[in-house]
Specification:
This protein is an alpha+beta fold. About 35% of the residues lie in helices and about 30% in strands. The chain is built from four helices and five strands. The strands form two sheets. Strands 3-4-5 form a three-stranded antiparallel β-sheet. A two-stranded antiparallel ribbon has the order 1-2. The longest helix has about 35 residues. It is elongated, with a radius of gyration of 20 Å. The N and C termini lie far apart (about 65 Å).
Length: about 190
């Protein structure tokens, strides 16, 4: 029985890491949906940005920036479990009043900063504004590098991604891809 204990621990590490990858898959699916929805309601000319344009490099355009910011905000959930080197936590002092909140320095509260690392690890955000038979679909594709945090299992899974050409060379990050298509409810 004692000889099986290391194998049980290793199996548990694999299950936890695979559950983490499943959570990453779900978060990225929602991030792709949020990006597609923000593009759907934005005032963007379909001819201005042709299909295949990487919107991460187009963040100067305020309308295109909506999709990138929506993706950053959702993918920042994945960065909370990554290595915390260089993460900036912003102190937000809040004081409670009878009527509501007041921004004074009474009791400090913390939140993850807007300047988070999700911007660093969002590799590509591709948007196709004209898709489908009637050109009424918005298609979004995301490439994101996520961190494998579980010991033992992360190295083996990282090597599998590396052999497939979808791993970062810097640390234990693997590249995940996700896409979403949303149909315009109006013409």
């Amino acid at each position: 029985m004692l000889l099986l204990f290391p194998f049980v621990i290793l199996l548990n590490c694999f299950l936890i890491q695979l559950a983490h990858l499943f959570v990453c898959h779900q978060v990225m699916q929602y991030a792709a949906f949020c990006a597609a929805r923000s593009v759907l309601v934005a005032d963007i000319d379909p001819q201005a940005l042709p299909a295949g344009t990487d919107w991460v490099s187009k963040t100067a355009d305020p309308e295109a920036n909506r999709a990138v910011r929506a993706t950053w905000q959702i993918c920042s959930l994945l960065e909370m479990i990554g290595p915390q080197v260089g993460v900036e936590w912003r102190k937000l002092p809040i004081r409670f009043k009878k009527e509501g909140y007041e921004d004074l320095s009474a009791t400090p509260k913390y939140r993850y900063s807007d300047n988070d690392r999700a911007k660093t690890f969002l590799r590509h955000l591709y948007v196709n504004l004209q898709g489908g038979d009637d050109n009424d679909e918005v298609r979004v594709g995301i490439l994101y590098d996520t961190y494998l945090a579980v010991p033992f299992a992360n190295r083996i899974i990282y090597n599998a991604f590396k052999n497939a050409g979808r791993a970062s060379s810097a640390d234990l990050r693997v590249q995940l891809a996700q896409s979403c298509t949303v149909v315009r409810p109006w013409k």
